[in-house]
Each structure stands twice: as C-alpha cells, then as structure tokens.
Design brief:
13 strands; five-stranded mixed beta barrel; 16 helices; single chain; elongated; alpha+beta; 584 residues; 46% helix
Length: 584
C-alpha cells in the first residue's frame, strides 16, 4: 500500500484551528491595547447622544449683489461647510439650509468643536495682491515732503517649485523709507499692477508718473490708509471688507516678528479658486510652520505672470500680499519667477497652519455669513431614545439567544461566544475610529449595530445546518464539520456580500445620519466574516473532538434521534479478531 505524499492533506483531514484562534486572539489583544493606549475607551457620540453646538448663519450679500443669495450659492455653501467640519475630524455634523438665507450647523461635542465653530462661517476669500506701500500699525501714511526715515520690517521670502531652495533661509530686509513710499504712493495707485522695466537695473522702480495728482479716489484711499490703526481690532476687522477684487484696498497684517502693519494693496491678480491644494508643513530651513499651496493650470500661469513682474521691482513693491478675508496673512518678497506652487509663511503654529490649509483646500464660500446665534444642544432627548434603543436591542439579543438554546442546545454555546467576540471587536473598533477618522456613534448607527446581530446569528445557523445535513447522510461529526464548511462558507460569503453592497450603496447615496447606519452595518458585516472564519469554525472543529459533541449527547444539539441519524456519530475503529493458525 502506497503511503500518502508528504505535505498533502488526506481527504477528510482536519484543519488546524489553533492558528486561526491565535490570529484572532492577537488581533483582539492588539486592538484592545491600542484603545487603552490612545486614551479613548468609549466611542465618540454624535450630537443626538452627546449634545453639542448649533450655529445659525445668515447669508449677507455685498452691496449691489443682492441676487447672489440664491439657492445655488446656498447649497454650495452647505457643501463647503460640511467638508470643512468633517475635514477637522468632526464627523456626523449636520449642515442644512433653513429658509432662503439661513444655514444651520449642528456640531457634536468633541475635541475639535471649538475649531469647527471658528471656521464654519469663515468666508475664506483668498487673493494675491501686489504691495504698493507698507507702514507700521499706527504711523500716518507717508508724505511726499517728509524727511527720509527708515522703518525696518522683516518680510518672509516667497518660495515655490523653483524658488531659492539653496539660499540659506529667510532673510530680513528693511522696507523702503517713508519718503520713498510717499513719492511712489500716488503714482502706484495709478498703475497698481507693476510692469516689467526696460532699465538696465533689475530693481529700478518702473511706476509711471501720475496723470492726475488730485484724483478724488486716490486721495480718499490715501486718507483711509493714513487713518488706519491696525492696533484697533474694530478697524482691523473693517479694513479690506466690501471691496471688489479689481479695486485697490487697505488691509492689516502681521510681519514675521508678529507686529501689526498696515498695507496699501493693488488689485487682485490671483484668487483662491486658482489654488488646487493646500496643506500645512514645516519649513526645513527655518523650522517654522508654513502652508504649501499648489495651483491649477490657470492659476500657475497667473502666478507666473505676477511674480515675473514683481521680481523686477524695488522694495516694497517686489512683495505680494496673501490676503484672506481682508487680512494680510503673509507678504513675501519675490526674488524669482514662480509658477507651480507657493508657500504662505508668517506667525503660524501647527494648529493655525493646519486650519488655513483646511480652509483653502475645501474652497471659499460663495457668500459672506454672519453668525446669528450659537446655542448649546443637550443630549436629553437623544439619551432617552438611546435608552429605549438599547432596551430593544437587549430584548432582540435575548430572543436570539433563547432560540439558539432551545433549538441548537449545546451548539448555542459556540454561537454565544461568537456573538461576544463580534461585539467586543465592534466596540473596540468604534472607539478607535473616533479619534482616527472622526467616526461618531449616533442613533441610526446604534440601529445598524442591532440589525447586525441578526446577520451574525444567520451565519452561525447556516453553518450548523450544513453540519446537521452531513450527519443525516451518515457521516461522523469530525468529517461532517470539515465537509460542511465549504458549502456553508459560500453561502455566508454571498449573504454578507449582498449586505455589505447594500450598506455601501446606502452610504454613498445618502447624507447625514443615515450614513451612520450604513457605515455601522457595513463594518459589522465585515466583522461577521472575520469572526465566522477565524473563531466560529475553529471552535467548532475543536469541540467536535470532545465526547460531549462527538458522541451526540442529547444536549449537544447533535442528538441522533432528533437528526434522524443512526448512532454513534463517532465511529470507533473495528479491531479484527486474531485468526487461529489451525483454522487457517
């Protein structure tokens, strides 16, 4: 008789359940340890369960643009605000319109709630404007007849895809003197956008001579620049507001030393719509936090054009100001032509750089908004609903266990253990997903978890019935466990695939709280496959080797009389009687 080939499992051979059980045990220990290590031992709750903040925003149009407050712009604003708050890790935020000009934002209680409150109504109108003049926060505007005086104002250097990577970091350069600014101010207002010079000196000023020294608009802007006090918060907030992109403006901003300055700026050359992506990072040369921006194709051409012009100008007109909602966040010098990307530098820390990158990445709101009210939402109603939901879930779970015990008897022990493992994995993963991706557990998500109890129990029933079918056909328990598995496995995978596909479609086509239900249903469906493959089947294999199950005890759920099979379920090897040599 030929021996079986080495390494090939004989037909009907047993699997190795120890490996699968060890794998899921390691995963459970690792996930549980990660949960305690992160410090988040409970799932993050949604606004209906934990309370939070409700913000009412009212749209306001610029003068002469009242028609801008329309359904299209309001829906666009809702989408942008929703992406902003979820980009901060505040999941399950509710953003919806109310009436014609109001937007309601409900933000769950959490670590980023304060940030979200600050950013939901930020318009995030971003413009790149050429700098015409700079002065200290309280200093009057430069006078052409004034005596020269220096005003040191260190400025960051612009950088981009090809910008000054090896020049040793940002250097501080004094601003032009007050008298020089005064002589150029009136002229610069007549031609706000610098033009390239034909002079042999690359830094020579090319501002054309004034054509109307007494232009009322120019004089009014000069007076506004002179009167501006950037140390006054009210004046800072009002500066740069309500001005069209094509008009020059006055604005406030901090220099690299954190000191307030006032700026006279030309028309916008590039706007926030030309920014394709923005993210925070550390400048390797200076160790300061910056915001890296990448432009669209059209934006790259505009940025290349303006930086080409500015690189040929003298201080301060070789600077461009990055203006966000009327405030100068950075005013770097241009030393070379840039195109593909740029950096916003200034007095950023990690949080403020990430906030700015988040706002720019998701775009500017099409309208300006005014905060009408900020209210605290209690979780009293949601707590009552959660309590009722948990009672319903407990009743459902008790009925499932009662059915398993009555019908499957000893096999119900395996099902209950598997349900416990699935519940533990679900809880731990939900707790970890809170800080990881901002997942928040709301009432629909709780409903999804309750529905998953039935899906998980269905997988056990499919497997147990396949085993019983094999036993009815006359096979013993251990081969029946192995032969039933391939058939049960196919059925379980098909059933779970349909459930997961339904959850995925529901998650994609819906918004708000319904997505919480779909996400939880999809997660628990995947965990069902993991538990059945790595726990239920290996445990069944091990218990099939015991006398209680192997001999078909009446409480094992494999009672021969109930199944219609002939006992014993586990055959004993026949021992051949010794043959008498005399009879042979």
């Amino acid at each position: 008789m030929a021996a079986p080939k080495k390494g090939r499992r004989p037909a009907g051979g047993q699997s190795r359940p120890g490996r699968a059980l060890a794998l899921i045990l390691i995963a459970m220990v690792a996930l549980t340890g990660g949960m305690f290590w992160s410090g988040h031992t409970t799932p993050r709750l949604g606004i209906d369960l934990a309370g939070g903040t409700s913000i009412t925003l009212k749209a306001k149009a610029e003068p002469g643009q009242e028609s801008a407050v329309n359904e299209t712009n309001m829906n666009t604003a809702v989408g942008i605000i929703e992406r902003r708050v979820n980009g901060l890790g505040v999941s399950e935020a509710e953003v919806q319109t109310q009436g014609r000009e109001n937007i309601i934002v409900n933000i769950p209680k959490g670590t980023n709630e304060k940030q979200a409150r600050e950013q939901v109504g930020t318009t995030a109108q971003l413009y790149f404007r050429p700098v015409l003049a700079v002065a200290p926060a309280e200093q009057p505007a430069p006078n052409p007849s004034a005596t020269p005086s220096s005003s040191a104002s260190p400025k960051p250097k612009a950088s981009g895809a090809t910008a000054d990577k090896g020049k040793g970091g940002t250097t501080a350069t004094p601003s032009a003197s007050a008298s020089t600014q005064g002589r150029a101010l009136s002229e610069a207002l007549k031609a706000p956008s610098p033009t390239p010079t034909s002079s042999s000196s690359p830094k020579a000023s090319t501002t054309p001579k004034p054509t109307q020294s007494g232009d009322p608009a120019t004089n009014a802007l000069q007076q506004k620049f002179a009167a501006l006090n950037c140390l006054d918060p009210k004046q800072r907030a009002a500066a740069g507001q309500g001005v069209k992109p094509a008009d020059p403006i006055v604005a406030c901003g901090k220099n690299s030393l954190g000191q307030w300055e006032k700026y006279l700026l030309g028309p916008a050359e590039v706007n926030g719509k030309d920014v394709d992506n923005a993210k925070a990072g550390l400048d390797q040369r200076t160790g300061q936090w910056i915001v890296d921006m990448e432009f669209t194709d059209a934006g790259s051409k505009k940025f290349q054009s303006i930086t080409s012009k500015l690189s040929q100008q003298a201080e301060p007109q070789n600077q461009f100001a990055i203006v966000l909602d009327g405030e100068v966040v950075s005013a770097p010098r241009v030393q070379t032509t840039l195109s593909a990307s740029a950096q916003i530098s200034g007095s950023f820390n990690q949080q403020s750089a990430q906030d700015l990158g988040n706002i720019l990445s998701y775009g500017a709101l099409p309208l300006a908004f005014q905060t009408q009210s900020v209210d605290t939402v209690t979780a009293a109603l949601g707590g009552e609903q959660l309590h009722a939901g948990l009672i319903a879930g407990a009743i459902g779970l008790a009925l499932v266990i009662l059915y398993l015990v009555i019908y499957y008897r000893g096999l119900s022990f395996i099902a209950i253990l598997s349900l416990g493992v699935s519940a533990l994995l679900t809880y731990v993963i939900m707790a970890l997903l809170g800080p990881a991706i901002g997942f928040a557990l709301n009432l629909p998500a709780v409903c999804g978890a309750i529905v998953a109890i039935g899906i998980t129990a269905d997988s056990f029933i499919v497997y147990f019935e396949r085993i019983r079918d094999e036993i009815r056909e006359g096979r013993t328990l251990r081969p029946a466990v192995e032969r039933a598995w391939p058939r049960a496995r196919r059925t379980i995978l098909v059933s779970d695939f349909v459930s997961f596909l339904a959850a995925a479609v529901l998650f994609i086509v819906t918004v708000g709280k319904v997505q919480g239900f779909a996400f939880t249903l999809g997660l628990t469906t995947l965990l069902d496959i993991v538990v059945v493959f790595l726990f239920t089947k290996p445990v069944m294999t091990l218990l099939a080797r015991t006398k209680f199950f192997g001999n078909g005890h009446k409480w094992s759920g494999l009672d021969p009389k109930r199944l219609g099979a002939k006992p014993p379920l586990r055959r004993s090897r026949r021992t051949s009687a010794p043959v008498d040599p005399k009879e042979a």
